[in-house]
Amino acid sequence: MFTVLFKAGSELSMLQNTIPSEGGYQATLEKEMASFHERLVSTKTADLSSIEAIYVPNDDFLDAGVQSIFPYLDSSIILSRKIYQQGIMPSVDILSSGFSNTLTPKIVGEDHFDAANYRAGLAQKGGRT
């Protein structure tokens, strides 16, 4: 969905004869992302969760479109073409998928928090575990 929004904004910039920002995206991209995400909130009577699938052009995480979304994510799961080509399923890159705002002892418990950090340490030392 966000890829469509980025592309539509970029095409709209060209049709309106305005100069897109560096990387070809509309100059208002970050404002539009903020506006969209501020509507995704929980209330006293209901909780809202969203799962956002984001296409990363040429596997470039520094792409302006990708970078405009990361501040709004609580965690990420990165799928890897390289791992997929090795025949490993699911093709999750556990080193790149490492951040999570909800992986705290208070939220997941001390045992799960310690196990997740131990596993990440093993993966960083070499090999998938």
* Terminal CA distance: 33 Å
Number of strands: 0
Which whole number gives the mean pLDDT? 77
Inertia-based shape: flat
Can you write the helix and strand succession as a string? HHHHHH
Q: Which bin fits the share of residues in helices?
A: 40-55%
Largest sheet: none
SS class: mainly alpha
What does this structure look like?
- The chain is built from six helices and no strands.
- The chain is mainly α and 129 residues long.
Show the helix and strand layout.
Blueprint: H1 2-15, H2 29-38, H3 64-67, H4 81-85, H5 105-108, H6 110-125
What's this entry about, in short?
By secondary structure, this protein is mainly α.
Question: Notable features of this structure?
Answer:
129 residues; mainly alpha; 41% helix
